[in-house]
Amino acid sequence: MNYFLELLPSLLSGLKMTLGVFFFTIIGSIPLGIIVSLGMKSEYFTIRWLINGYIWIMRGTPLLLQLIFVYYGLGMMGISFPRFEAAIIAFIINYAAYLAEIFRGGLQSVPRGQYDAAKVLGFTKIQTFFKIVLPQVIKIVVPSFGNEVINLVKDTSLVYVIGLGDILRAGNIAASRDVTLIPYLLVGLIYLIMTAIVTVLLRRTEKRLNIWR
Amino acid sequence: MLEIKKLTKTYNNNTIFRDLDLTVSDGEVLSIVGPSGIGKTTLIKILAGLETADAGKVTLNSEQLPVDGTRTDAKVGLIFQDFNLFPNYTVLDNIILAPINVNKIDKAAAKDQARSILDTLGMLNKAELYPFQLSGGQKQRAAIARALAMDPQILAYDEPTSGLDEASTKQVAEIVKTLKHRGVTQLIITHDQFFAEIVSDRVFDFSKEVAR
């Protein structure tokens, strides 16, 4: 117990980093993912081509590599970001690509008739999207979106590669210093608590959306 | 009054109909009959602004409506064959969504109006239900209420009796009559000759009167 209290400050500071990466990624990647998914339906070939290329790269290479590239690679090319900002940028563009694929599936499952009904009633395209289409897409994508969010909780640990101190790194340091596995157990426990919270929130959202079908 | 003059629609070099002339007077109930796949639905989709025509003129109460797909108004109310209710809204919210967002009507006033329409259609007790909780006939009445709330100058039905049992079909006929008494101009697309004869002032035989 004493050992636990001893570790707590460093773990908490690591947790702050982990949660920072998590929340900024969520806030940034959802709107970007929606915009990208709409772009995939663009009538312009160039836009579709660019977006498909972007998604291919983001899903086709490891996030670890993308982090290294955004921080060190772009830095060498003269575009340098502080570590934390670089991590957030890499995470947002990576997660937006996955979310865009999920949103695209959701958009495709809203029947044509919904758009027709909205048009006949005089809704603008923007009203149709926000009032009629998006709420239906959200309900459809919540389960797959939840998977990505849980992946994100764990993926945040990759930021160690550009020298950021997240919770896993804090545990790692303590474990090598004190030659014990206990810090890792604690870190594992904290990840489990975080994913449990996310799971409960997602279940609740699903339940609330289940009042209509 | 709705006036259609020399309306022509082609699709992939096939002529769906050519030089179609048709007039619907104010308060009239007109049924358009004919076998399926003949272009009846295409015609009302053009009237509602969902399809484009190749040539011809559509005039509604002496205002010319564009038929090139640029329409954004709700002058023609359309009851879809599969209703297309918004599943994420209750019946009441389905009805008030357009008046509030499109016509910018105050929410309380929109609700009052919606309840009065639902009352006319015998649906007031279903106001708080979601579409999935309704039967086919009830969904249709919700769709009619949603269209009426936008105060359309003409109400068009696409195959209103398809998939309905005899009792529900009678109910549709009653609704058409009720709305007629209130002066609503109605255009009904149907392949059900019998239903057409019962509810309409005039029956227009699409297969006989339209050139292709």
TrEMBL record, chain A:
Biological processes annotated in GO: amino acid transport
Keyword Transmembrane in record: yes
UniProt GO molecular function: transmembrane transporter activity
InterPro entries with a match to the protein in the record: AA_ABC_transptr_permease_3TM, ArtM/GltK/GlnP/TcyL/YhdX-like, MetI-like, MetI-like_sf
Membrane association type: Multi-pass membrane protein
Cellular compartments per GO CC: ATP-binding cassette (ABC) transporter complex
Chief location of this protein within or outside the cell: membrane
Span of domain ABC transmembrane type-1: 15-202
Keyword entries, A-Z: Amino-acid transport, Cell membrane, Membrane, Transmembrane, Transmembrane helix, Transport
Subcellular compartments: Cell membrane
TM spans (from-to): 20-39, 51-74, 86-103, 181-202
Keyword Phosphoprotein attributed: no
Similarity comment text for this entry: Belongs to the binding-protein-dependent transport system permease family.
Protein name per Swiss-Prot or TrEMBL: ABC transporter membrane-spanning permease-glutamine transport
Organism encoding this protein: Leuconostoc gasicomitatum
